[in-house]
Design a protein that fits this description.
Elements (H helix, E strand, L loop, with lengths): L5 H4 L3 H13 L18 H12 L6 H11 L4 H7 L9 H4 L2 H8 L16 H13 L3 H5 L13 H11 L6 H13 L4 E4 L6 H8 L3 E6 L2 H14 L2 H26 L9 E12 L6 E4 L4 E3 L4 E8 L4 E7 L4 H9 L2 E2 L2 E3 L6 E3 H5 L2 E3 L2 E3 L19 E13 L2 E7 L3 H24 L14 H7 L10 H16 L5 H17 L6 E2 L4 E2 L13 E5 L5 H4 L14 E5 L11 E4 L9 H4 L1 H7 L3 H4 L18 H16 L6 E8 L4 H11 L2 E10 L3 H5 L6 E9 L5 E2 L1 H22 L9 H16 L4 E2 L4 H6 L9 H16 L7 H5 L3 H14 L5 H11 L8 E3 L6 E2 L2 H4 L7 H4 L2 H15 L2 H11 L3 H16 L11 H15 L7
Parallel strand pairs: 1-2, 1-19, 2-18, 19-20, 23-24
Antiparallel strand pairs: 3-4, 3-13, 3-17, 5-6, 6-7, 8-9, 9-10, 11-12, 13-14, 15-16, 20-22, 21-22, 25-26
Helix pairs in contact: 2-3, 3-12, 4-10, 13-20, 14-19, 14-20, 17-19, 19-20, 20-23, 28-29, 28-31, 29-31, 31-34, 33-34, 37-38, 37-40, 38-40, 39-40
The structure holds S-adenosylmethionine (SAM).
């Protein structure tokens, strides 16, 4: 029986990529982001597509299967139309209609022009016209007028009829369909698990689709985020209302308290919504305390900047704030007092490294760090500390008869008094709050990312990363929330996630951005970077983060769910589908970074979540790519394989930098008892990103099943089988590809070739003479490819040969030498706007061409392209793998044609220099015509002259019968 599922046969990668890009671009309005930061949360639409793809059976009509899949996802034409949320503009209507259609629309039955196209049309008739326009848009364009699939209620009645007719189901909702397909395949509602659940995308989406969902993670912050995703966002209106009320009350209480304390208001009744602080240190050149910042610009738009004025009486500088600065003042402020990691003395121009200012020094081979380490109750630097902290600007908000005026002001005596008061108020509460866990008290454990705040500021405890103002208002919120006594898991989690959310914007590591005039997130990257100057939001600017309304999801989750902390190797629950995104060769130190959040609620967590630990379990974290990592991964996946029925499926996602790294992952999964059945790459950038040469990251989705037999094979015998499988896979994809909106790019075909090879290989439990585990764990020299890798690489060679560039006949392609094929395929990559060095390297690997860097005109990592004939000139002609091929001579002949503006010169070169000229004339004409067609590619203007010359030369060679032009 064929029990293969849709995702094992095909996957609409281009459309899913576009949808996931749209979701990512929604920024803060993505469904789960309101819960707070998690690094590498996966788009929900990818998870939805994966679950449907893993449950939907295939028929013998792949095109119909695809249409039905798109209908379920509301990614077909009708679904997109249903998802539209903005009106479709009709200004450019004429461009979208044929001449006849336009004429029929704009003339009345007597042939007279109508005042407007819509004159005399009923609303329904108008809609038909607009629909026509919409249907003719590209998928990207359509998406700009649409909501995301998760924002509507699934397919409509008509679509359900088609879906049910094709699948033999009786569904009227996504949940019905998922349940029916699950029962058919597994005998029950599908059970979907994620053993590395992170921010909770997989369990949340699975539960929303009606599956029984399981999410666990080693890290308690991740487990809490997952729990909150399911129970708060998926909790339905009553829960959302409860959360909303609790959060609003928390904000109102803190706001009232702060107003009563008078620490954010001035005597004019204005309220501060931003405070800017900087570090200060003594300048070795002058002995003055110098405020430090890489730039003193505060607002680009209003030309606000800080200006330092020497003040010998205070042994330092006054800081003035200038609004509407003249060019000279503004340009000077751009320079800052720290440039390239060195303090710049404004008096002498001398520079000093910040490390030397801190007192860091080498003793033998060790670096001894110079800063005093802060003690628990240090909340600001002590007077004799090397690095001081100084408030240098306050932004006041004046509200007058509903108009808002913002004023950037320098720091006055009253501001300093308010700062003092904040400190006093905090000190009064500090011990009690730490004890009760309203503010952090945990020490920072040294580590890869956590060493930085310790070394660069002397901060030893997590609360040191927050200034007194931040600790005071966050502590107030938490104490008022947690003191009320009517706490439940729901209110605790709501409070904890709002802390995740707020602290990302409210720490000493949150950068002030003069472009947007706002305080940005702490985690603008995956590190704990200290800042010389930072911004602090007033509480009114944090209202949105504190009141985490959790109202993103339409569906109330009703199915059975589990969210817990556990090591992936220890999971003891059986699930039909495991969808995981492991920490593969991952640079994110989840266990270190998440302490930033966990330190705020670790004391209450075990009370509300009995059995949960509050340790981030450094020793058990899976990370890196070395031997320990591989063992941990094999053990984790062997466990998940055990926790899955024989007809279960797994999908492993990982975001790859380089197509070859994933071969290692495939070996890990093979060693864990799984076999690969398919692989797809989802892009997370659109073509507009590509145009600017941005780095495009792809996430590989690897589909796997349990290996239930233990057949043995000889590696040599597998080659023909692999060759057939690769060709079959590619032909199937080529046949399915959409000519107008291509689904697959070159890298997808390469990946599919790898996957096809792995499909054959991983079917076998044993390959005679090779031990999979041994091969995986043994130390390899750099560049050494194991026998398995060689087999996998062979698959790409087959794919490279098999995929003929569009516009060339197979006969012409087959007659070309490998370096010639590489060159022409490279041009095809450029045509498709692929500019990543990795794609070109993979191609060269596929054709087995070693010496290819000479072909590069541009070799910058994300801006690679090959040279044109005119750019090559004589370079490499006659030498190396490519230099002596007919194609290299063709390129030189093009160059000669351009240079002399005479096709005869090019022709003479070919006749004289290509010994096989007369036999290969037709072949050459075909190649020249292929190059001539590049003149039509708008983003390849550098080919314009050469393409024109190629066309003339093609004519000359074609007519060169008797040596007469
Ligand atoms: C790439 S992230 C997963 C992101 C997740 N898919 C999402 O959408 O947010 C990998 C996760 O693996 C977790 N992890 C690391 N070692 C683990 C282990 N031994 N057992 C379970 N989880 C682990 C990390 O805490 C991290 O959350």
């Amino acid at each position: 029986m064929n029990d293969r599922v849709f995702i094992e046969e095909q996957f609409p990668v281009s459309k899913v990529s576009k949808e996931s890009y749209k979701e990512r671009k929604a920024g803060a309005s993505q469904t789960l982001t309101s819960l707070g930061k998690w690094w590498g949360r996966k788009p929900l639409v990818v998870v939805r597509a994966a679950i449907i793809g893993m449950l939907m059976p295939v028929s013998d009509d792949p095109k119909k299967d695809r249409d039905i899949f798109l209908k379920i996802m509301t990614m077909d034409d009708d679904g997109l139309w249903r998802r539209r949320s903005k009106s479709i503009p009709t200004q450019g209507l004429k461009d979208h209609l044929s001449r006849d259609e336009w004429e029929a629309l704009t003339t009345d039955p007597f042939g007279n022009p109508k005042p407007s196209w819509s004159t005399g049309l009923s609303p329904d008739e108008k809609e038909v016209v607009i629909r026509k326009v919409f249907d003719r848009m590209s998928y990207d364009e359509k998406l700009t007028y649409c909501d995301r699939p998760e924002q509507i209620d699934g397919p409509d009645e008509k679509a359900w009829k088609d879906i049910n007719d094709h699948l033999g189901t009786h569904a009227a909702s996504l949940q019905d369909l998922v349940a029916e397909l699950g029962k058919r395949r597994f005998g029950h509602v599908p059970r979907v698990g994620d053993a590395f659940c992170g921010g909770g995308s997989v369990p949340f989406e699975a539960a929303r689709l009606g599956c029984e969902a399981y999410g666990s993670d080693l890290n308690p912050v991740a487990a809490l985020l997952t729990w909150a995703a399911i129970h708060l966002i998926g909790g339905g209106e009553a829960v959302q209302k409860q959360v909303q009320e609790a959060q609003e009350a928390a904000f109102a209480a803190a706001d009232k308290q702060i107003t009563e304390w008078g620490i954010e208001h001035n005597d004019k009744g204005w309220r501060a919504d931003a405070y800017l602080y900087c570090v200060e240190a003594r300048c070795p050149a002058t002995g003055l305390m110098l405020p430090l910042a890489p730039s003193w610009i505060i607002s680009e738009k209003y030309r606000v900047c800080a200006v330092l004025k020497r003040n010998d009486a205070r042994q330092g500088y006054d800081i003035e704030i200038v609004t509407g600065a003249d060019k000279e003042t503004f340009d000077k402020a751009k320079q800052g007092t720290v440039q390239n990691g060195r303090m710049v003395c404004p008096e002498t121009g001398e520079t000093f490294s910040i490390a030397s200012i801190r007192g860091d020094r080498r003793v033998g081979r060790e670096t001894v760090y110079g800063l005093r380490l802060w003690e628990n109750d240090d909340l600001v630097p002590r007077p004799d500390d090397i690095l001081q902290e100084r408030l240098y600007c306050v932004r006041w908000v004046e509200t007058d008869s509903n108009k808002i005026h913002r004023h950037y002001c320098c720091v006055e005596e009253d501001d300093l008094r308010r700062e003092e008061k904040v400190l006093e108020l905090l000190k009064e509460r500090f011990s009690e709050w730490q004890e009760k866990g309203f503010i952090p008290s945990r020490a920072i454990e040294p580590g890869y990312n956590t060493d930085q705040p310790i070394r660069e500021r002397g901060w030893t405890h997590w609360h040191h990363l927050f200034n007194p103002r931040q600790l005071l208002y966050l502590g107030s919120i938490r104490s008022s929330c947690l003191k009320t006594g009517n706490n439940t898991g729901i209110t605790f989690a709501a409070n904890a996630v709002s802390i995740n959310n707020v602290t990302d914007f409210a720490s000493r590591l949150a950068r002030w951005t003069p472009q947007g005039e706002k305080v940005n997130t702490t985690f603008s990257n995956q590190a704990l970077n200290t800042l010389l100057n930072y911004g602090n939001r007033g509480i009114i600017r944090l209202q949105g983060n504190i009141e985490t309304f959790c109202s993103g999801a339409k569906t109330t989750i009703k199915s059975n769910t589990v969210a817990k902390v556990v090591d992936a190797r220890e999971i003891n629950s059986n699930y039909s589908l495991w969808i995981t995104d492991p920490p593969y060769a991952d640079a994110v130190n989840y266990h270190e970074l998440s302490e930033f959040f966990l330190s705020w609620y670790e004391k209450q967590l075990p009370h509300f979540f009995p059995g949960w630990y509050t340790d981030t379990k450094k020793a058990l974290v899976i990370r890196g790519s070395g031997e320990d990592f591989k063992h941990a991964m094999v053990d984790s996946y062997a466990n998940l394989t055990k926790q899955m029925p024989d007809n279960g499926l797994q999908m492993v996602m990982f975001t790859h930098q380089d197509a070859s790294v994933w071969a290692d992952l495939a070996m890990i999964l093979w060693a864990a008892g799984l076999k690969v059945t398919a692989a797809w790459t989802i892009g997370t950038e659109t073509t507009s990103g590509l145009k600017q040469g941005n780095y495009v990251q792809g996430t590989v989705l690897l589909i796997l099943r349990k290996r239930t037999t233990s057949e043995t094979a000889f590696l040599d015998e597998l080659y023909p089988e692999i060759e057939d499988e690769v060709r079959r896979q590619l032909d199937q994809m080529l046949a399915l590809d959409d000519k107008e909106d291509p689904n697959f790019a070159d890298t997808d075909y390469q990946l599919a070739a790898y996957a096809a090879a792995l499909r054959v290989l991983t079917r076998y439990g044993d390959i005679e003479g090779h031990d999979i585990r041994h091969d995986l764990f043994r130390h390899k020299e750099a560049g050494e490819a194991s026998a398995f890798e060689q087999v996998i690489n062979r698959a790409v060679e087959i794919a490279s040969d098999h995929l003929v560039p569009k516009g060339l006949e197979t006969r012409v392609w087959k007659a070309l030498q490998a370096p010639e094929r590489l060159y022409l395929k490279g041009l095809e990559l450029e045509k498709n706007m692929e500019a990543r060095a990795g794609a070109y390297q993979e191609l060269a690997k596929g054709f087995g061409v070693k010496d290819y860097t000479g072909l590069y005109q541009k070799a910058k990592a994300n801006a690679v392209r090959f040279k044109t004939g005119s750019e090559f000139k004589k370079a490499g002609l006659g030498n190396g793998e490519f230099g002596s091929t007919p194609l290299r001579n063709i390129l030189f002949a093009i160059h000669e044609t351009v240079r002399t503006d005479d096709a005869r010169q090019g022709l003479n070169w070919l006749r004289d220099e290509v010994p096989t000229y007369w036999e290969q004339r037709k072949q050459m004409v075909a190649v020249l015509n292929y190059l001539a067609a590049l003149s039509h590619i708008p983003h390849m203007p550098h080919w314009e002259k050469d393409a024109d010359a190629a066309q003339r030369l093609a004519g000359a060679v074609e007519n060169d019968h008797a040596g007469v032009l």
